[in-house]
C-alpha cells in the first residue's frame, strides 16, 4: 500500500485539550472522511493509513484525527464522555471545507462517531473494528451505540476480531464488510490465504463502493 504525506496538519484546541488533524486532500472532493484512532494506538494504524492513501483519488478528502490525549503523549485513553468532548471540539475544523462529513473511527473512535453523528450533523458513519463487546464478554454488548447512529453506517470488521466477529452483529440498517481472517487491527495470519495488502484492499474497496452509494 503506497504511503503519502499529509497535505496539511493543524492543531485545534478543545475543552479536552489540543487535538490534531492531518489532511489528505482530494483534487475535486465530494466528501470529507474524518476518521480517528482507537484507545490503544494512533493514526498510524494500517487501515487509517490505507484509507488516507487511496480515497483522495476517489474524490474523498481524508482527515486523520488525533484525540487530545494522544497528542499529549498519554498512553491511556480517557473516559468515553471525554473522547466525545474532544471530537465535538474538533468537528468545526472538519466541517470547515463545506463538504458533507463522514464521521469515522476505529474501535473506540468508531463508538465516538456513532454516539455523536446525529447531533453533529454527520452525513454518515464509518465504523472500523467496532468493539461490539469486550473480548470474551458478549453479554456486554454495545450494539445500541451502533444501531443508534441515526445516519447511513458502514461497519468494517475483521473475521477473527475478538471484540466482535461479523456473525455476532445484530440485524440493523447498516452495511458490513468482512475482512477475512483479520483481527482487531486487521492483521491477518501469515498462513491465511490472503496477504496483508489484500486485506487492506478489501477495506479500501469496500469503503470506496459505500461512499459512492452515498452520492
Automatic annotation (TrEMBL):
InterPro entries: AB_hydrolase_fold, KANL3/Tex30_Abhydrolase, NSL3/Tex30. The keyword Hydrolase applies. Gene3D superfamilies: alpha/beta hydrolase (3.40.50.1820). One of its GO terms (molecular function) is hydrolase activity. Residues 33-211 form the KANL3/Tex30 alpha/beta hydrolase-like domain. Keywords: Hydrolase. PANTHER family: TESTIS DEVELOPMENT PROTEIN PRTD, TESTIS-EXPRESSED PROTEIN 30. SUPFAM superfamilies: alpha/beta-Hydrolases. It comes from the Bacteria. It holds the Pfam family Abhydrolase_11. It comes from Streptomyces gottesmaniae. This is Alpha/beta family hydrolase.
Amino acid at each position: 500500500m503506497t504511503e503519502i504525506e499529509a497535505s496539511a496538519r493543524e492543531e485545534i484546541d478543545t475543552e479536552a485539550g489540543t487535538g490534531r488533524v492531518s489532511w489528505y486532500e482530494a483534487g475535486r472532493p465530494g466528501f470529507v472522511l474524518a476518521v480517528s484512532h482507537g484507545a490503544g494506538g494512533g493514526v498510524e494504524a494500517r487501515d487509517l493509513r490505507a484509507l488516507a492513501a487511496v480515497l483522495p483519488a476517489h474524490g474523498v478528502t481524508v482527515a486523520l484525527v488525533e484525540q487530545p490525549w494522544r497528542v499529549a503523549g498519554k498512553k491511556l485513553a480517557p473516559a468515553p464522555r471525554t473522547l466525545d468532548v474532544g471530537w465535538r471540539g474538533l468537528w468545526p475544523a472538519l466541517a470547515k471545507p463545506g463538504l458533507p462529513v463522514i464521521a469515522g473511527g476505529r474501535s473506540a473512535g468508531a463508538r465516538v462517531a456513532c454516539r455523536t453523528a446525529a447531533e453533529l450533523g454527520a452525513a454518515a458513519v464509518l465504523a472500523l473494528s467496532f468493539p461490539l463487546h469486550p473480548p470474551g464478554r458478549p453479554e456486554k454488548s454495545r450494539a445500541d451505540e451502533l444501531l443508534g447512529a441515526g445516519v447511513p453506517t458502514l461497519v468494517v470488521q475483521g473475521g477473527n476480531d475478538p471484540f466482535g466477529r461479523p456473525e455476532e452483529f445484530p440485524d440493523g440498517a447498516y452495511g458490513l464488510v468482512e475482512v477475512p481472517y483479520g483481527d482487531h487491527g486487521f492483521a491477518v495470519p501469515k498462513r491465511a490465504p490472503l496477504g496483508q495488502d489484500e486485506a487492506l484492499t478489501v477495506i479500501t474497496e469496500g469503503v470506496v463502493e459505500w461512499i459512492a452509494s452515498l452520492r
